[in-house]
Design a protein that fits this description.
single chain, mainly alpha, 2 domains, 7 helices, 64% helix, 0% strand
């Protein structure tokens, strides 16, 4: 106990003034604060949770008062972010749903695709299915985040996991949609163009790799490779 009657749980309920370097944004700060308060509460005697300080405040009351502005800011960010991603996920659902009824290469008189059995066609069908299912899952996850209570008890695990799950399925739907788009247009390319594109793409791989390695490197690459140069 300090001179104000605060126990260790009271101390953990106060808003930190200096956050660790890896904590960025109101969401991660609120998650860190909630995790820290939960951790201290689980590792201290239970009677400290209901103990009042000299002002008559319990640790939970202090935590709610200290973090009300941060909680409001975090909730607004989550609301705007989940709403924006939900709109885009809904657009992907509509696009992939329409694409699933479009067969590249056409069909025969019996309704069977002409390209059935080709690897590219199988990639197209599988990627459309993955994009459609993942976009619906992402939309449901963002709606769940948008409509959640967004209380401090939700920030340690529940809310961040829902948000991460929604983002993961969203990016999966985007990637699979691009794969299906490329696979569908592969049928439209002339065979002579395909033979010209492949060597050109292979030639650009070393350029891409060297550019990426130089950009991400902290030190410049040596000008000479091989024998030592006498200065």
């Amino acid at each position: 106990m300090d001179i104000d009657g605060n126990n260790v749980l009271h101390m953990a309920s106060f808003l930190l003034q200096h956050m660790p370097r890896q904590i960025h944004g109101s969401l991660m700060q609120m998650q860190y604060e909630a995790l820290w308060f939960k951790y201290v509460k689980e590792n201290t005697p239970a009677h400290l949770s209901s103990q009042e300080n000299n002002d008559g405040d319990t640790p939970d009351e202090i935590f709610a008062e200290q973090h009300k502005d941060l909680l409001k800011e975090s909730n607004e960010w989550i609301k705007d972010t989940s709403g924006s991603y939900a709109v885009v996920a809904a657009l992907i659902v509509s696009v992939t749903y329409a694409t699933s009824y479009t067969v590249p290469g056409g069909t025969d008189d019996n309704g069977r695709p002409h390209s059935r059995g080709h690897l590219t066609f199988d990639i197209f069908v599988f990627s459309v299915l993955v994009s459609f299912c993942s976009s619906i899952t992402s939309l449901a996850a963002f709606v769940a985040v948008f409509s959640s209570r967004k209380q401090p008890v939700d920030y340690p695990r529940s809310l961040p996991l829902k948000l991460c799950f929604g983002l993961t399925t969203f990016y999966l739907s985007v990637v699979s949609m691009l794969v299906s788009f490329c696979a569908a247009h592969f049928f439209e390319l002339d065979h002579r163009i395909k033979r010209k594109i492949s060597p050109y793409a292979l030639v650009l791989i070393p350029l891409y790799w060297n550019l990426l390695r130089t950009t991400l490197s902290r030190e410049p690459r040596p000008r000479y490779v091989g024998d030592n140069v006498t200065m």
